[in-house]
Each structure stands twice: as structure tokens, then as C-alpha cells.
Amino acid sequence: MGYSIWLYFQGQTSRELETAISSLARRFSTPKFEPHLTLVGDIDLEIGAVKALAARFAALDIPMYLPVCGVDFSDRFFMALYLAVEIPPDFQNRREQVASVVNPGSYKLDDPHVSLLYGAPDRSDLVDAQRALAREFDGKFLEVCDVGIVHSSKTIPISDWKRVASVG
After folding, report:
1. For the range 22-31, what are the long-range contacts, defined as Cβ-Cβ under 8 Å and sequence gap of 24 or more?
2. What is the pLDDT of residues 71-90, one digit of tens each?
3. Into how many domains does the chain fold?
4. What's the CATH code of the domain at 13?
């Protein structure tokens, strides 16, 4: 087991995010991964149950565009460098509902974001990357295409992550 429900991007957005992720992975010798926004991650349920949870997102109007609110970095491995984004309130409410089903009472959701770099690079090295990415992404809108289920978790090697279903 070990699944996540992701929001995927399309078109120019997908290409720009892929380019940024690849460039940063080379620069910092960190893992490369597919561009996404994790709606809910580390779901330890059977795939049928995960599909039912993902269908709750597909029942909403999937937002076509998400505004980028800034570029930031953190000490967290999966959020080393990321785009802070805004998602519609109904999507955030649904994230909270689904997370409470996945792990009642103890699941903490990250603020909506799109990671561009995983790992633990030196913070001083991230400042220049953050500035460059802010010039490229601040104020942009990310074009969304669909919701997917990915075989992934913090315990599965990133190289083994793979999309197993589309929803909606």
C-alpha cells in the first residue's frame, strides 16, 4: 500500500514545472519527480478505498488555474523549495475531510504547495534559487488538468513512485 492523491498540471505549466524540477535536481544532486500538488498523501488503505476518497475530489469542479502566491523553502525534505499556491476553499475543505478519514485526529496537512526540490540543501544555496524562481513564477497561474492516484509515500523510494489511476 502507500498512496497519495495528487492534482496534476498540463500544457505550458507542466513543461515549466518539469524544467524547474529537473534543473534544480541536477544543480543540487537531489531526486527528480513529477510535478504535482499533493492533496492528501501517505494513505495506507487498499486501492479501492483510495479511489473512493479520490472520487470526492473529482466530484468538485476541478480548478483550472491555481495562483502562485510565492516561492519559499523549508527544512522539510519534501518541501525543500516550493511554490505556495492558493486552492479554492471547497478543495481545501475536501482535503481536510479526506485527511480526517485517512488518519482521524492526527493527520496534519501541509499548506497548499507545489514542490520544486526535495532534499536538504544548504539554506544559503537556496536563497539564489528562490529569487530566480520568484522571478519566473510569482504571480503566475498554474494550469490544472486532473486528479490522480499515485503509489507513493514517505517510505517508498521516489524512483518507484508511479501513477496508478486517474479520477474523474
Report:
1. 24/81, 24/116, 24/117, 24/129, 25/117, 27/129, 28/117, 28/119, 28/121, 28/125, 30/80, 30/117, 30/118, 30/119, 30/121, 31/118, 31/119, 31/158, 31/159
2. 999 999 999 999 999 999 99
3. 1
4. 3.90.1140.10
